[in-house]
Every structure is written in C-alpha cells, then in structure tokens.
Design a protein that fits this description.
single chain; 245 residues; mainly alpha; minor pseudopilin epsh fold
Length: 245
C-alpha cells in the first residue's frame, strides 16, 4: 500500500513537470510566431504600392481590363478612403496590423477600407505569371495538415465558391504555427479580431464580383478555378517560412 502511494505521488510529480514543460514550450512557440509576425510588418499604410507586374501579365486567367479597373480604381479607392478615415486620429501612429487586432473598436470606414487596402496588397503579391516552386517546408506542412496539395486546393477553392456575397478565401497560419483555410465577408481578414479564426494570411483570393465579372460574369467557380493557375507559390512560401521557424 505504501509503495503504491509513493508510486502515485511520483507519477503525479512527473506529469506535473511534463505539463509545465509543455506549457513553456507552447508559450515559446507562440512567442516565436508573434516575433516572426512582427518582423513581417512592412506595409506602409501611407503608400500605395505599385502593381508588381503589367496589367496583362495574368492573361488568359485574369484579363487586362479587370486588372486595370481592379487595381487603379477599386484598390486605390480603398487606400484613399482608409488614409482619410484615420487622419487626425491615434490610428495614424499605429501599424495597420495593430489596427486590425482592435478592429472591433474601430469605425466601419476603417474596417472596410483598411481591410480593402491591405487585402489587395497581399492579393497582388501572391499572384504571378510565373509563380515558381513551393518550398519544401510549406509543402510538407500542407501534406501534414491537409493530406495533399490536391486536398488543400479543394478546400481553398470551395471556401471561395461558397462565400455568400462578397468576401475572401484565405490560407493562413494560426498562433501555434498551424495552417488553416477560412473565408471572411466583405473586406475582413484573419488578422482582425472579428474573424471566426484569427491568424496571419499567406494566401488570399478576392471573390468580390469586381475581381472577375468582366471576364467570367456570374460564373465565380470558373474564376476561382482559374485563380489557382496564377498563385505565386514562391511568395506564399516566403511568407510561411518567415512565420514558422
């Protein structure tokens, strides 16, 4: 009886030690993720970035006219309206990511236009006429999380096809370094504290009608399928590799 009691105490101490170690490791991993994310904060909210390729570079998947209107009118309008919305407020001195982390407390004009500005910057950067190869690190993470690239493709494209009304589909990294697929309405994104699941997006697909209507009309599924052909896997991999050390 005495030996059994001692054994139970030893097991309890061992489990307690393991739990504390596990919690420390989890906090360490979370902090590494946060630090990596902080290092990615390079978007200047007062600068409208140039399109990284010509308007016709993504033909035949995304047409020149759509690109020109989408970038120079829609995206630029989000940028101008966002800058005007934060002018003269404390948000002028905050990073756009810090604004998103507190977006539930911000005016709708900041949420809509700040999201529209940020989301489109990412959107242009994760597309390319020559997307390059996916990194081994990201490929392994996709296989581990989703089973295969084909399964990720299905989940991601379905997220875009099934989003009711206007919005976005995302591949993101959560605070534990795990990949997840989600969609958000309007110009929301996973960085916002109103998102169903928060994380850092590394791939985003615009499913507002202005992103595809001139070429695909009401056939959103055709646009969504075409989008997969212009993903800049080199850029998506870079973002993932910076986040997950």
């Amino acid at each position: 009886m005495k030996k059994a009691l001692i054994l139970i105490v030893l097991i309890s101490i061992s489990l307690s030690g393991y739990s504390e170690h596990s919690n420390r490791e989890e906090k360490k991993e979370s902090q590494n993720y946060i630090n990596s994310y902080r290092n990615m904060k390079t978007l200047n909210k007062f600068e409208f970035p140039a399109l990284p390729y010509s308007y016709d570079a993504l033909e035949p998947y995304i047409d020149k006219m759509t690109m020109e209107i989408h970038y120079d009118r829609h995206h630029r309008a989000y940028f101008n309206n966002f800058v005007n919305a934060i002018k003269g407020t404390e948000m002028e001195s905050m990073s756009i990511e810090d604004i998103f982390e507190n977006i539930s407390k911000m005016p709708a004009s900041v949420r809509n236009n700040g999201g529209g500005f940020y989301n489109h910057v990412l959107y242009w950067e994760v597309m390319s006429p020559n997307g390059g190869e996916i990194s081994e690190k990201l490929k392994n993470a996709i296989d581990q999380k989703f089973g295969s690239m084909d399964e990720l493709k299905k989940l991601f494209l379905d997220a875009g096809k099934s989003r009711f009304g206007s919005g976005w589909a995302w591949l993101s990294v959560d605070k534990s370094g795990q990949l997840f697929v989600s969609s958000t309405p309007n110009q929301d994104n996973p960085l916002m504290d109103v998102a169903d699941k928060m994380g850092v997006p590394i791939l985003g697909m615009d499913v507002w009608e202005h992103a595809y209507y001139l070429k695909y009309q009401n056939k959103r599924p055709d646009y969504v399928e075409a989008f997969w052909n212009v993903i800049n896997w080199q850029e998506v991999s870079r973002r993932y590799d910076m986040l997950v050390k």
